[in-house]
Amino acid sequence: MLADDAELFRTALADLLERDGCVIVGQAADADGLLDAVERHRPDLAVVDIRMPPGHHLEGLRAAVRLRRRHPGTGVLLLSQHLEVTHLDELVGQSARGVGYLLKDRVTGPDFLSAIRRVASDGCAFDPEVVPLLAGQRGGARRDELAALSAREREVLALMAQGRSNSAIATELQLTTRTVETHVRNVFLRLSLPDEAEHNRRVLAVLAYLRSAPRARATTSASASADSVDLGRKPAADDWSTASP
């Protein structure tokens, strides 16, 4: 399901996804249309622009929160022209599964297509520019939840939150894949995550990372004051480069 008021962008996005084997079950130009269409079609994934009619503030984000409340089995990938983190933690809620947020500049190439599959498959994909703000790397102290992690382990976890695979993390940090695997195992152990499938443990680790800092208050949008809304809370994250179709 695609939701964006710009018909040209929707059409181009639909073409990109269909050429990659995705089925577009519906499109919407506003938040109400999105919710109605999801109710009818129950898609695996909704790709939603944060700003939509009528106010072009956070209608898309508000709709995404309601969507996740009503249809937790539908993944939500938010897109935005500008970096917006106000209230984004309320979309993530208590579970980072099946949720993502990318800047529209990233809507191209294999990484984006992998992110689509990852979020649709109950994983997560957060834009590299979003992760530091959500995790408080630009000010604010971390809570004790991550206190046991080394600086390198935090770096690895931050890249996990962006949806990087172990091999991609190794390339970024100029480490061997085996070394990254060791860091990832240590993250699981230090966060006392249950011994279950690695996919689930990565999701739980990312969730711990995202909630480890004070709630993000910043936004680079000049209209932040107009975007102050009460979104409520709701559930539904991991490495986009290893997503299966």
UniProtKB/TrEMBL annotation:
Domain HTH luxR-type residue range list: 142-212
GO process annotations (BP): phosphorelay signal transduction system; regulation of DNA-templated transcription
CDD domains: LuxR_C_like, REC_NarL-like
Domain annotation Response regulatory: ranges: 1-119
Highest taxon in the source lineage: Bacteria
Protein name, UniProt field: DNA-binding response regulator, NarL/FixJ family, contains REC and HTH domains
Positions of region (Disordered): 219-245
Positions of modified residues (4-aspartylphosphate): D49
GO terms, molecular function: DNA binding
Phylogenetic placement of the source organism: Bacteria, Bacillati, Actinomycetota, Actinomycetes, Frankiales
Keywords of the record: DNA-binding, Phosphoprotein, Transcription, Transcription regulation
Keyword Transcription set for record: yes
SMART domains linked: HTH_LUXR, REC
Short name of one Pfam family: GerE
Entries under InterPro entries matching the protein: CheY-like_superfamily, NreC/VraR/RcsB-like_REC, Sig_transdc_resp-reg_C-effctor, Sig_transdc_resp-reg_receiver, Tscrpt_reg_LuxR_C, WalR-like
UniProt KW Oxidoreductase keyword: no
